[in-house]
Structure formats: C-alpha cells, structure tokens
Amino acid sequence: MRIVTRSDVERLLPIGPCVDVMRQAMSATSRRDVSLPIRQFMPIPDAPGKLAIMPGTLGEPACFGIKLVCKYDRPHDDPLGTHVGMVMLFDSVKGIPLAIIEGSSLTAIRTSAASALATDILARKNATRLAIIGNGEQAMRHVHAMRAVRDIDHINVWGRDTERASAFAAKVADETGVETIAWKTVAETAADAEIICTTTSAKTPVLFAADLKAGQHINLVGSAIPTTAEVDDGAVAKSRFYVDYRDAAMAAAGELLGAIERGVITDAHIVGEIGEVIDGNAPGRNNDDQITMYKSLGLASQDLAAAHVIWRMAEAENKGITVDLMD
Length: 327
What we know:
- There is one protein chain.
- The chain is of the alpha/beta class.
- Helices cover about 35% and strands about 25% of the residues.
- It contains eleven helices and 16 strands.
- Strands 1, 2, 3, 4, 5, 6, 7 and 16 form an eight-stranded mixed β-sheet that branches. Strands 10-9-8-11-12-15-13-14 form an eight-stranded parallel β-sheet.
- A hairpin with a 5-residue loop joins strand 3 (about 40-45) and strand 4.
- Helix 3 (about 105-120) crosses helix 11 (about 300-315).
- The N and C termini lie close together (about 10 Å).
C-alpha cells in the first residue's frame, strides 16, 4: 500500500488533466457504473466539527474506497483549512488496499475540475469574463480551473470582507496576469460576467435572479447540505438546472430543494446530470441566451477516479511511502 501526501497529490494531478478524469467519472456516474451511498455526517461531541463519510465503488477502473473528511470551523487564515481528511483506495478485483491519499488537496482539485468540466460543456464557447463569489481556497482553485477550459481575459471577485477581497484580487492578478477587480456587491461582480462560480460558506443566498443576465453559466459550489443555499429560488427557476448526481441532489442540494419545497419548481426542473449531457442522453445549452446552472455536491466516484490516477502515477514514479500491511 502507498501513502501519498499533499505535495505529491498537487504535483501528480494538475487541474487540466483532472478535467478529463472528471469527464470519465461523471459519464460512469450517469451510466450507474458506480455505487454511491449518500454522504453521511457525524457530529463530533464538544467540538466545532463533523466527520463526512463518503464510500463508493467505480467500475472502470475497478476500485472502491471511502473518503473521510473532518470539517471544522477554523479562522480564515488557518493553514489547515476547513477540510482535512484522506481517501482510502482499494482494488475491486483482489479486495486489497492500494493507497491512502491526502484528501483535502484531492478534494479541492477534483471539485474545481468538475466545475471546469460543467463549464466546458454548458458555458458559451466564447465566454471570457469570469466572476468568483467568495475568496477562499476553492475561489482560487476555480480561477485556475476556469482558465483551463476558457480563454478568460477578465475576472471580477467578491467577498464579505472587502479588504480581504481586494487582497485576493491582487493575488489572482499576480498569479494569472489577468485583469482582476474586487467589487463591493455581488450584483456588480456578476453584472458583466459570462461564467460565475459561487464558492462561499453562505447559509442564505448571496446571488439573486435579478443579478443574472442572459447567456451566463453558474457553478454552485459552496453549499452541500439541504438547509443552505448560495442563490435564491428565482435564480434556480430562471436557469436550466444541471446536477452531478440526481440522488445526491434530491438529498442535499439546498438551492434545488428549497425551491421545490416553496412550490417555485418541481424536481422535473433538473434538465439532467452532467454525465448524461456528456453521453448525449440529456440536452445541454441550446442557444447563447440561456442561463445554465450546475449544482456541484461532490461524489465518491470523483474521489475514486482522482485517487486511482494519483495512485497509478505514484506507483510509476515510486512516490509516497510504501507500507507492507502483511509484514
């Protein structure tokens, strides 16, 4: 068995190649060549955190495993971040463990790559203007991910703390060489954007139907439980709504569930899973005026696909730490 640390994860799975890994994983998900029990959360007594448990199987490559992620409330600048964990990868044929892989960087990479995949499929091909709502790790990851699939030439950013948002904008401009502006309101940030990524920890909507314009594509990334939402009911109703996995969406997609509960839409509002669009079993964007919206919840199939690539490359390069469990 091989143990792979954060630095090797970052090096072995750059964002561009990970988009193709996610393409295969999402196609497999929609073909149901997977087993995906709904993610479970276990609160930690007397602590500001919880354990997320995400088991699953993947048919090709034939593997199974589980991701364990500790989600703890920490200060914005804490080096540990809010997610710390691991992915345990097993071979399905022999039933043996292959690797334990650092989970926070793997999750960050595959999440932004999944958004990039949805953007590549659903956004207008000539989209060049990006809005990032939020200024945490996923915000920066999404900047680089969007640039992997579109020729981004302008970036707007927003964060609740204007000073922090300005510092984030400066960092984005420095890392990318792309003109980046921090705005005081979400409405200003989204106004001329063609691609919008919401990467916040917001409990209630920050982006509204009135903020959206024809032709935009929105990736909803920050909310992953049914009681929170980053956009309002009107924004959901105004869009062509896509998900990563229907079962997960109907269990945890707060924006979708809230709009259904309040009678604004029905579950038929889901146009399709992104994997169904890939395989030609659901329609994508039909014209340049449609507003498309992708709800990302994150799946064990994505974790397993990314983990298997990392393990295979680590094996080839003899990276990480090998452990003989039978010794």
